[in-house]
Amino acid sequence: MNIGVLKGIGGFFLLLLAQALVFNHIHLFNCATPLLYVYIVTLFRRDFPQWIILVASFTMGLCVDIFSNTPGLAAASMTFVGMLQPYLLTLFLPRKSGDDPDLAPSMGSMGMERFTWYALIIVFCYCLVFFALEAFDFDNWLHWLENVGGSFALTSILLLTIEFFRFRTQHENRV
Predict the structure, then answer these.
(1) Which residues touch 32 (CB under 8 Å, ≥6 apart)?
(2) 112 pLDDT more than 60
(3) pTM for this entry
(4) Which residue(s) pair with 32 in the sheet?
């Protein structure tokens, strides 16, 4: 088995455990919950089979739903974001990267600015769909906007912080 596959599976379980044991219990200002498991979707390589991305995204969402008591919300939202990921990735990849079909999205391979925009769009789409499905009506649209905005901000900060430390560690190992 490939070491990259083992790292991916380990990351999957690490994010799942972190979400179930820690992040599900954080509700800042009663509207901001970190949904860090969406980070797994940002890490799929270019030219990765889309059906595997969809199955992995759905599986992660389903596992989070089981531990979070959110029947189908995370699974549907993660599947939606998994469907968008290959298209968003091609938008933000540098043009000169056409030679490497296995390019993994990261700050090191895409650049800080491109990866940041790529990750922010994925997190925003995820939060928008997740909380729209959770509310299912927009009678209290102000609370819905607070949930989307707060969770988007908190998740984005955590995701970009983790990616920045991964980037720094990889950069230091090369030097």
Answers:
(1) 26, 147, 150, 151, 153, 154
(2) yes
(3) 0.89
(4) 28
